Prior knowledge:
Order of helices and strands: EHEHH
Strand order of the largest sheet: 1-2
Number of strands: 2
Helix content: 40-55%
Amino acid sequence: xxxxxxxxxxxxxGGGPGGYAAALYAAAAGLNVALVERDKVGGTCLHRGxxxxxxxxxxxxxRRTLNHS
Length: 69
């Protein structure tokens, strides 16, 4: 770790869909932004929750369609 002190206009805790969007919005407004995320940016929804579950369901649907064609 660095011993330097950094200053930010905004510190966002959580890099999920809301935190990520807020960080982009704040940066676009010219603010100095820190985004703190313990795991991967995108959060649980993107990596383990909603998005992967929807992809598995869609893949199963396509496979079922092909099997019955």
